[in-house]
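Lab notebook page, bench 4
Experiment: in silico fold of construct C2
Operator: M.H.
Input chain length: 319 residues
Purpose: comparison with the prior construct
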Amino acid sequence: MLAIRLSPLPATKHLLSHTAHRSRIPFTYPALTIHRTMVHSTYAPIKLNNGTQIPSPAFGTGTALYSKDAKDQVLLALKTGFRHIDAAQMYANEESVGAAIKESGIPRDQLYVTTKYGGGDIKESFNTSLKKLGLDWVDLYLIHSPELVKDQGGIAGSWKILEELQAQGHVKSIGVSNYRVKDLEELLKTAKVKPAVNQIEYHAFVLDKAEGIQKLAGKHGIILEAYGPLSPLIRKSEPELDEAVKKIAKKYGGTEGQALLNWVRSQNIVVVTTSSKQERLEEYLRVAELPNLEATEIKEISDIGKKYHYRNFMDHMDQ
C-alpha cells in the first residue's frame, strides 16, 4: 500500500517527492527593485551515463510549493544562481514554473529542467507537461514512482515508452524516482537505455534502505539525486548526529545545513533542495566554495545515521 503525507489532488492518487563568483545586480522581486550581492554558483556538474551533464543543486518545486503558484519562488531561485529546476506533474504547478522560466530571460541552453510523470497515459502526460512548462524539450524526464505505472505496462512497459520519448528528441535524459532495488532490477532486465538517474529521499536516516540502491545504481552508472537532504536538521534530530554535523561545519567554516549538503555532494549525488528565503538559497549554493568532505567524515555521518530510521516521503521505499 502506497502511503502519502499530503492530500491528493481530485480524482487522482498523487505522490510527492527535491567555483562561485559574486556580482551586484538589480532584480525585481516581486514588484520592487533589490540591489544586493547575488551568488552565481553551482557545484561541479555530474556526468550521466549517456554523456550529458547534470547541474547540482536543483531547486525543487514540490513540498512547500505543492499545488501552489511557484512563479515567484522559482524566479528567486534562478536570480540567486540556481540553474536546475526540478518540477513534476504531481506538484500541480508546472504552468507557474514555466512562467518563471520565461520571465527570467535566461537562455534555454543555460537551464536544466527536470519534470516527472505522475499518472495517465505517459505520452499524453509528457506532452501536457511540455505545454504547461512552455518548452519544446526537457533535459530530464522521470517516472515519479513505480506505483504509478501498474496500468501503463508495468515497470518494463512504461520504461519502453520513456525510451521512445527520448528517441523522439523531446527529452535528453530519462530516469526514475523512488525506485527500490527490486524495481531497478526489474527495469534493467529489459531496458535498452539504462536510467540516467534515480531520485530518492536521501539523508543519513534512510541509509539502511538507500545503501542497497546506491550500490546497484553505482554498478550500472545510475546517478542518485537526493531530495530531503536536510531532514536530519529540519525534520528529525538525533543528538549524536547533531554533534558530528556541528563538528564538521565548524571545521570547514560553514553551517550545519551546508555540512549535510556537502555530505551528499561529496558522494557524487545531486542535491535537490528548496527554500522561500534568499539567504538560505545563497547558503546552499555556497557549498560550492567548500572542499568535499573527507572519506572518514562521510563515513562518520553515515555510520551514525544507520543507527536510526526516519522517512518523510514514499513509505513504499521501506517495503
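Observations: Residues 154-167 form the longest helix (14 residues). Residues 1-38 have pLDDT under 50 and may be disordered.
Next step: discuss at group meeting.
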